[in-house]
Amino acid sequence: MDPTGWPLWMIGFLGSFAAGLATGVGALPIFIRRHWQAESTSVMLAVAGGIMLAATMFSLIMPALGIVEERSSSALEPPLVVGGGILLGAIAIYVVHSIVPHEHFAKDSEGHQFLALGRNWLFILAITLHNVPEGLSVGVAFGPGISSGLPVALGIGIQNMPEGLAVAAALSSDGATRLRSFMIALATGLVEPVGGLVGALVIHVSAA
Predict the structure, then answer these.
(1) What pLDDT is stored for residue 116 in this prediction?
(2) Lowest CB count within 10 Å: 92, 120, 176, 198, which one?
């Protein structure tokens, strides 16, 4: 229980919801300008990637190393435990990518094409696949308390804004209306609370 009186799992869920909502906030400029150049989309995605990398390193990996160091007297255990966690996460994303049909900005379709989906939906699935783990990381980060979760939620929320605009711009350029482009971008962000709730509940029942 946090000093605010709210259970931490609920705060983790709300934090991931706010971070996901930022995707829709970032997509709002699509109502002002419909068509965006490919270079603009690339810059927006690069900014989002840079923020995500920083949030991953400073708000997830380094705190994880610190937690293991506090509980262990071995200098080798922290990098092994954290490195193992990173490897498991990477394998999980690789497996999901190989199964679920999706399409990235600059790649052809990937995964098993067992569903007859258009390019827009394949693109939406690709964004969704990445947003669920982002929500998971926010939910987990709130496990020790609000002070540890806020930087992760803020970092992911900020990187979701240019990502949301990039999604809306790509859909709009592909023929979707502005409203549809905005709503789809918002929807891709609002899957994050699903991952956030899972992460927060896991931390709620197990400190390990």
Answers:
(1) 56
(2) 92
Token look-up 């923020």 returns 51
DSSP structural state of residue 60 = I
Question: For 122-149, b where at least 16 C-beta lie within 10 A, e where not — what string?
Answer: bbbbbbbbbbbbbbbbbbbbbbeebebb
Residue 93 is predicted with a pLDDT of 83
Distance CA 48, CA 133 (A): 15
Q: Which two tokens mark 86?
A: 């990173």
List strand residue ranges (DSSP E) for 48-176, in order.
102-103, 109-110
Residue of 139, 152, 155 whose CA lies nearest to 191: 139
Task: Give the contacts of 38 (CB within 8 A, at least 6 positions apart).
Answer: none
CB 124 within 8 A of CB 181: no
Separation between Cα atoms, residue 139 and residue 72, nearest integer Å: 24
Which residue's structure tokens are 């929500």?
135
In sequence order, what are the beta bridge partners of 102?
A: 110
What is the rounded distance in angstroms from the CA atom of residue 97 to the CA atom of residue 104?
11
pLDDT in tens, 44-84: 778 878 887 888 888 788 888 988 898 888 889 999 999 99
Which pLDDT belongs to residue 52? 79
